């Protein structure tokens, strides 16, 4: 899981974009790329608390008024980085649910190892507590990520590794939860052992039927 | 798991008390009880963002200067509520690890069902991001809670339900993590199904040896 890479034209719809024009691939996409890259670079140098729209404007060369119109707040920009990052996660497809879950857990651990990325999640969670708008973005961004990755559980159900009525989103949430608990609650660094245990615990629970809904699959 | 009940004399040491005198059971304990109860009541009426030391002073009848001297900030008061709550958690002891874990998960779900308690955890996590002092309190409070409850895994090891080198604190963290993920990341309410799944997943992983350290027990 690498740093979010702003990428250009012919992108799919941007689910968490709060505002702005709809011209795809043109100036709008370039503006988004420049602003998100600038905010990302600034977060490597400073705490979230000292990040301002004006600093992002200076580094990106985009007018502060334009940034305010499209993202409203620094929290809006940060949430959009997270959203973009979610769009670029590769979904493992090794042919084995156990291996897919371990690959996903390792990619989450890798992502949250640099302090900058720990600050990113802290910033987004803090913003969500203070602003209903940011809370909605967080809810949507994490919902989208989980839904995208949950396809690996659907594939496992098709292969007969787990029951057909397994709730894939809950499997993915169970795998991801210990990372955020570690970062936000016990406030210790994530590591490879946490990744191994999270993946293995989610896998065992999934094959044992813990996440079955009791509803027949469509 | 009920609301934190300030209680009076002959209490054990207060691990997260930031400051203050050391006279146990006297005026100091009464002051703490009054201040924490007042903050708790205020949180039922307002958001954390609008809670101030002066409001707590008004409701508790304790001078604002006294509150500032002992807890420094609103975050300090909130963290102390959390600490006090942790001290009063009953540790289930049913004779079965599975039942103990389910009882614990239900008590966590019950605690985080009222919106006030959701706001409590949001407030503490937000404070920890902004203030190193609050982060240390959060780290210590959650560390203490986990260590206290992890004794149920030690008992299970003595009964032969899990391997002797099972890391009890990691079992408890695995059980608790999905609640905080739900509250802080996907921002949906916790419910009985989440409690059931979290307990069952932690139990299965524990008995399968996922949380073994590979070190011999002392």
Automatic annotation (TrEMBL), chains A, B:
Residues 29-89 form the HTH tetR-type domain. Residues 1-30 are annotated as: Disordered. It holds the Pfam family TetR_C_11. Keywords: DNA-binding, Transcription, Transcription regulation. It comes from the Bacteria. InterPro entries: Homeodomain-like_sf, HTH-type_TetR-like_transc_reg, HTH_TetR, Tet_transcr_reg_TetR-rel_C_sf, TetR_C. Gene3D superfamilies: Homeodomain-like (1.10.10.60), Tetracycline Repressor, domain 2 (1.10.357.10). Residues 8-17 have a biased composition (Basic and acidic residues). Residues 21-30 have a biased composition (Low complexity). Residues 52-71 bind DNA. PANTHER family: HTH-TYPE TRANSCRIPTIONAL REGULATOR RUTR, TETR-FAMILY TRANSCRIPTIONAL REGULATOR. This is TetR/AcrR family transcriptional regulator C-terminal ligand-binding domain-containing protein. The lineage of its organism: Bacteria, Bacillati, Actinomycetota, Actinomycetes, Kitasatosporales.
């Amino acid at each position: 899981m690498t740093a979010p890479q702003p990428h250009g034209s012919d992108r799919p719809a941007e689910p968490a974009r709060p505002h702005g024009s709809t011209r795809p691939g043109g100036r709008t996409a370039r503006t988004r790329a420049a602003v998100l890259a600038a905010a990302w670079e600034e977060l490597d140098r400073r705490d979230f608390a000292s990040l301002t729209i004006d600093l992002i404007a200076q580094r990106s060369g985009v007018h502060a008024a334009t940034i305010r119109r499209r993202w409203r707040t620094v929290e809006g920009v940060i949430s959009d980085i997270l959203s973009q990052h979610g769009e670029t996660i590769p979904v493992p497809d090794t042919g084995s649910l156990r291996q897919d879950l371990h690959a996903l857990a390792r990619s989450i651990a890798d992502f949250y190892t640099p302090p900058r990325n720990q600050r990113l999640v802290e910033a987004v969670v803090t913003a969500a507590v203070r602003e209903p708008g940011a809370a909605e973005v967080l809810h949507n961004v994490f919902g989208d990520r989980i839904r995208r990755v949950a396809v690996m559980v659907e594939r496992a159900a098709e292969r007969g590794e787990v029951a057909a009525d397994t709730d894939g989103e809950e499997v993915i949430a169970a795998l991801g939860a210990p990372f955020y608990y570690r970062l936000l609650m016990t406030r210790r660094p994530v590591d490879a052992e946490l990744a191994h245990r999270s993946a293995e615990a989610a896998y065992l629970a999934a094959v044992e039927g813990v996440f079955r809904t009791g509803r027949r699959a469509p």
